[in-house]
């Protein structure tokens, strides 16, 4: 904008001076001018090298361009009594000419200078002259102060980091006993467990400068930029020591070296090498505590994990029932609750939920209450929100014809009935034939308590339950009418059986050996390979996987064949009520009826003609983290 104004000003000056130097009056040909002089019609003239300006006897002004080296002009003027005078050469025209010539170059230089200044100003934010500058940002209380009071459900991790804060606040308390402040702490945990929240709490509690950066902010397309940014980041930290430096998602820059294609001296590895040197090299970084977070500790370089760089590895786990209750209490402070809301009950029904999942659950419940025009968020909203998060949103607008709805009901009834007859199976939370997410229907099971390991009898029970839907379809509708909806069940059962055989040593024929292992491939691409890949071994592995799945199929078939009358009863109840709770299913199996005051569902909508797509239905095994789409 500034240089645009300068350019317009120069144009105005040129036009002003250029206009002022132009000859005035009526233009004449030089020959006509001489004729007027000879006729005595010219009174006065002013002669210059570029023009002759004069006045006629009639009082009119004129101008003409003279012919160079006309020797008779002066004599002609004297013979006819014309008063003439000369004019000193005006160098202004030369100046204007020069200015007009160099003006484009001045304009280009001005634009380049302006662009360079702008780039330099934005260099720290990634400008062309600031590639090597660190993108670390200092966190201030303007972003919202977070303290350890806002962190719940991960008490052990919090205690580890509270000690670091105490180091910063009162270092003499520890140094007098010979202790030194930890140089770094690595937060390890699943997504959503609160790693970044813990780091922000440290920033809010410590009262020292807190720099935050993401691992991906180091790496650019230009080689050497990442290493330069690491150096600049630590220079900034040294100027503000004591301080805390938080690197989020450090696996983006800290992956194990040696996985590059061809030459391993690539940009990411140079950045990692510089980070290793800065964290613990010849130059000491006193007063700089590095905190990093990752959910992929298995891919990090061993040199990055050793003491002296990361002295502590703090595991941030999925919260247990007590932790979930505390987390819910933190998030529920912001929500007006109805008297019937019991955080303990919600915590018991959400095994496997992370802190982020619970925050989302509370938010979904609040949104549901607002949609229903309620002033308070009641327990019903939390139950509905939990079902939405676990099973997906209801697709009540989806139309299904009678035959497909009936097949869905028998499929889900098969899952539920097998689950009831498998002692190791988790209790049923809900069974529904209302389409949810990508599923036409599902049976949701929730464990009675938090599970940290799984036993063989439960895995066999899960195989049988997964096959229950397929078996029910075959018993009721015949072998030729089995649908494609069981594809998710088959996938789940196959994966479970493969893990039992190749990773968990649960095959009597193959023994307690690991036959498959995950490996880090080129460019970070993972793959699973069999570690004992002989032809006979592979054939035996495949046979054992098939035997396990077929064993689950047989167990499901035995249950459903023997209790076909209960299968009909449960399927008819699903067709009538569409959704049944675990308690209602137990009552139905015990008393043969359901005591529900609600009215049964309305008439079944009919699918338009020509629609033949059969989407997959889903069944989730709640609490264990296992989920398998099941057929409808």
Automatic annotation (TrEMBL):
Region: Disordered, residue numbers: 590-632
SMART domains found in the cross-reference section: AAA
Statement: the UniProt record of this protein carries the keyword Transcription regulation: no
Binding site for Zn(2+): 411, 415, 489
PROSITE patterns: AAA
Residues forming coiled coils: none
Broad class of the protein's primary localization: membrane
InterPro entries linked to this entry: AAA+_ATPase (IPR003593), AAA_lid_3 (IPR041569), ATPase_AAA_core (IPR003959), ATPase_AAA_CS (IPR003960), FtsH (IPR005936), P-loop_NTPase (IPR027417), Pept_M41_FtsH_extracell (IPR011546), Peptidase_M41 (IPR000642)
EC number from the UniProt entry: 3.4.24.-
Gene3D superfamilies, per the entry: 1.10.8.60, 3.30.720.210, P-loop containing nucleotide triphosphate hydrolases, Peptidase M41
UniProt keyword terms in alphabetical order: ATP-binding, Cell membrane, Hydrolase, Membrane, Metal-binding, Metalloprotease, Nucleotide-binding, Protease, Transmembrane, Transmembrane helix, Zinc
GO MF annotations, alphabetized: metallopeptidase activity
Biased composition (Basic and acidic residues): 590-601
Membrane-protein topology: Multi-pass membrane protein
Compartment annotation: Cell membrane; Membrane
Family: In the central section; belongs to the AAA ATPase family.
Function: Acts as a processive, ATP-dependent zinc metallopeptidase for both cytoplasmic and membrane proteins. Plays a role in the quality control of integral membrane proteins.
Assembly: Homohexamer.
The protein's name: ATP-dependent zinc metalloprotease FtsH
